[in-house]
Amino acid sequence: MELRLYDTLTKEKRPFVPLDPKNVGMYACGPTVYDFAHIGNGRAAIVFDVLFRVLRHRYGADHVTYVRNVTDVDDKINVRAARDYPGVPLNEAIRKVTEETYRQYQDDVTALGCLAPTVQPRATEHIPEMRAIIEKLVAGGFAYVAEDHVLFSPQAMNEANSVMPRYGALSKRSLDEMIAGARVDVAPYKRDNTDFVLWKPSKPGEPSWPSPSGIKAQGRPGWHIECSAMAWKHLGEKFDIHGGGIDLVFPHHENELAQTCCAFHSDRMANVWMHNGFLQIESEKMSKSLGNFFTIRDMLADWPGEVLRLNMLKTHYRSPLDWTLKGAEESAKTLDDWYAVAADAVASEPSPALVEALYDDLNTALAMAVLHGLRNAAASGGTRERGEFAASLRLLGFLSMSAAEWKGRKQQASGIDPEQVDRLIAERAAARARKDFKESDRIRDELAAMGVAIKDGKDADGKPVTTWEVA
């Protein structure tokens, strides 16, 4: 059974062959920590968490390194730092903002069932690596200094006679298309409109560091150079997988690829480039102007993290995802059922059919169909079937609680008093025993009004028993 992944660069799905099976490396672009992350960021975190889990399953947990960066130098961070901490030295204020928002992000994606990456490097802790790459690019003729800026030249890259890919190979755009389709920063010191900033002088009130390439003024890095530097530091000049949202293909990942390949005279940065699709809300693009912009924290106030996770994994990661209330409600019901069937089972090995679906470019949509079949087998089967179902769910990041904890969480969230419900059920049982069906029906209606659904059945000895759940 081979693992196959779709590569954005080559536009094909092909067998994944790591550079070193004992040291598989993946890098995913993480958050810019200036505020709560939106639910679209949550999709990316979940997608690459599933990939991390699949790689660990195939190669062993000790043989996979997952790097997810933290961007902690950004204009939005500077603005918030000045707003929230007036009078505090800038770098100290920035650190306060980024520490707070980083913790929020960590808490939110952990609630979504995501494992902690192996390394979570901060941009501001990798300035020396950024300067080193910039020096290589200037020395190689791929970048130049102008008015205390360092700029990368896509034209110089494309004119180089080497093994490096052409600029535009990842996004499949020509230079003319990039000029027409991008917000080009026009500046008199640029040699060409497509040239982009690697380093720029810091303005008053901005963080600054010693500049590369003989520039005397203090400065700060451009956006794209940080990921090239952090990937190099933690995974090397070449590594296996680079991931992120589809919106990052151009210009961010295109520029990363260019910088790294030119700095190290390489034919590639990552063997495979993977990108998850956009997320919409009720068939509309998420936008603050439309009033449908939601953070992960907003969603977690209404739904358990595993419900959000399941709702996203029902759609293949490369397809657009339409987030709907109906879909979330269906996911919640599905998880209630899965917990009841498998949460307390002793996990064995995941189903080969589930693994095969995930090995087909993380086909979680197919995996959902497999899980429903496993659920039916587990409900009517024995220990082996329940164990296989539980292991399959855990491979995908579900069943973080016991069945009792899951049910109790739902009960607690509903505000229903379990002791009161149990007392009413006992009173109803007594009424039924004395054939006072009018009282029995009244109690049933009272429970329903509280949001409690009851189910009458029999226990293993054939005695009447009533169970209940939050409706």
Task: Write up what this structure looks like.
The protein has 471 residues and is α/β, with parallel strands linked by helices. It has three domains: 4-276, 3-Layer(aba) Sandwich (Rossmann fold), CATH 3.40.50.620; 280-409, no CATH class; 415-470, no CATH class. Helices cover 46% and strands 15% of the residues. It contains 17 helices and 15 strands. The chain has helices spanning 39-59, 75-84, 90-111, 127-139, 154-159, 175-181, 225-235, 249-264, 296-300, 305-313, 325-342, 352-359, 364-380, 383-395, 403-414, 418-433, 437-450, and strands at residues 4-7, 12-15, 24-28, 64-68, 143-146, 149-152, 196-201, 219-221, 239-245, 270-276, 279-281, 284-285, 321-323, 452-458, 464-470. A four-stranded parallel sheet has the order 4-3-9-10, with helices on both faces. The chain has a four-stranded antiparallel sheet with strand order 5-6-7-8, covered by helices on one side. A three-stranded mixed sheet has the order 12-11-13. Strand 14 and strand 15 form a beta hairpin. Helix 2 (75-84) crosses helix 3 (90-111) and helix 4 (127-139) packs across helix 7 (225-235). The protein is elongated. The two termini are 42 Å apart. 41% of the residues are buried. The model has no long low-confidence stretch (mean pLDDT 92).
